[in-house]
Design brief:
Helix content: over 70%
Oligomer: single chain
Number of helices: 13
Order of helices and strands: HHHHHHHHHHHHH
Distance between the termini: 22 Å
Strand content: under 5%
Largest sheet: none
């Protein structure tokens, strides 16, 4: 563990990204304490500039506190990113492990099924799914998970294909260990490195997708999100720039932090690759 942290710490960008991510997590965890009132409540006059009348980041067209919206929206964005990524990992890891370990016709069927999903533009497919099931946080998580699992399946399949011919797997097979037990206890634990790195990038992509859906009016109408704040301010950007700029900065910093952390995890989990890049 100490070696992992030492390698991770060498990447200064990853450390900065981790600090930003911790701040975003703290903001989402303390949103109800910092802003106890509902982010939908009118807190000041409409279009109040940042810093006036106690409005740290200004108010929107209905007098709602932009800072409160960003703080409460952080919780939704992180929740959607984490839950949809977890669901996509469950689907992708399961199908990838089955295809890689079984091989043959099963591998061909699973990969053709995966390629079918990859032929459809992911964002368009997400819009279609949310529109069919009506906009809600459940339908958004489902849509993002459905469009996110194919890359996971391909990565896991490639890792399992390279691991199933290793000596420790062959030894487990000779000892009569069940295939499911071999995959769960011998193969997948050795394939965790690329899965962990990929999951951090998937959370960032999920946050962007959720923000884009909310921006288009396909977000949950009962929840304050960063994408909704940007969409609400697009028509008045000339007179109230803060309505879109500050939520946009929140998305930018969070996604940047996740990508930097993902790069740091890649360096820490694959030291040989990191030395080769250096």
């Amino acid at each position: 563990m100490m070696d992992f942290w030492r390698r991770f710490r060498r990447n200064r960008g990853a450390v900065v990204g981790l600090c930003i991510l911790v701040l975003v997590l703290l903001l989402s965890a303390t949103a109800s304490l910092l802003f106890p009132d509902s982010p939908w409540d009118m807190a000041a006059a409409p279009f109040m500039p940042p810093g006036e009348m106690g409005m740290l980041l200004g108010s929107d067209s209905l007098g709602r506190d932009v800072a409160a919206g960003i703080a409460h929206g952080a919780r939704i964005s992180l929740l959607v990113g984490a839950v949809s990524t977890a669901a996509a990992l469950c689907i992708g890891v399961t199908l990838g492990a089955i295809a890689g370990y079984a091989g043959g016709i099963i591998d061909d069927v699973v990969m053709r099924f995966t390629e079918f999903f990859q032929t459809i533009p992911s964002f368009v497919f997400a819009i279609l799914l949310v529109a069919i099931f009506s906009p809600s946080i459940g339908s958004i998580v489902f849509a993002i998970a459905v469009v996110s699992w194919p890359p996971v399946a391909r990565v896991v399949r490639a890792e399992v294909l390279s691991l199933r011919s290793r000596e420790f797997v062959q030894a487990a097979q000779i000892l009569g260990k069940a295939p499911l037990a071999i995959v769960l206890t011998d193969v997948l634990p050795n394939a965790l490195s690329p899965i962990i790195v990929l999951s951090s990038l998937m959370v960032a992509t999920a946050i962007l997708t959720e923000s884009a859906l909310s921006f288009l009016g396909l977000g949950d109408p009962n929840l304050m999100t960063w994408g909704f704040l940007i969409g609400a301010g697009r028509s008045v950007i000339r007179i109230a720039w803060w309505m879109s700029v500050f939520p946009g900065l929140a998305i930018f910093l969070t996604v940047l932090a996740l990508n930097l952390v993902g790069e740091g995890l890649s360096d820490a989990l694959n030291p040989r690759l990191a030395r080769r890049r250096a």
